[in-house]
Design goal:
alpha+beta, Protein Transport Mog1p, Chain A, 5 helices
Length: 182
Amino acid sequence: MISSLRRYLSAVCLVLTGCGGASDIREYEVKQEFEKILTSDLLRDQFESIPFRWKVPADWKAAENDQFSAFAWSTGSGESAARITVSDLPASAGLEPQFLRWRGQLNLPEVDEAEALKSLETISLKSLSGKYIEIKGDSESIFGMIVPYKDKLWVFKYRSENSTAERQRKPFRDFCESLTAE
């Protein structure tokens, strides 16, 4: 019993006295991952998954990605807000089905593929080319460019209500035309 009491008192003394003199406790503050602002340059440098560079219009603000986008921006607010995204698809997805899908997103009537793609335009980029289209629905517009690159289709898409689309047509087109491959 006395030896148990001695061990107990020794343990209490060790706990109360510690392992040495005054401690040098240092505090560090580390930002949480979601507080980082990921720029296209940062992502490209860290992951090298996006093989392009581009010039983003000054009034576009970085936006939260959805399950499909690698990059997203918005411009405007409320009902006149626009969403711009960059995403990739396997090359096997095909160009034309994407443009036809966008017509469906605007609730446009089905037409044959040749009619739907009449306004498709080839844009020559530095060392690349892309297929560009503008689709206008009753209340919304979609502008888009698809660039085949290696084994993927890179999709650059703009969507907003029609009056905002009229104002953003040139900035989106300039954005698309600024695209260069690394």
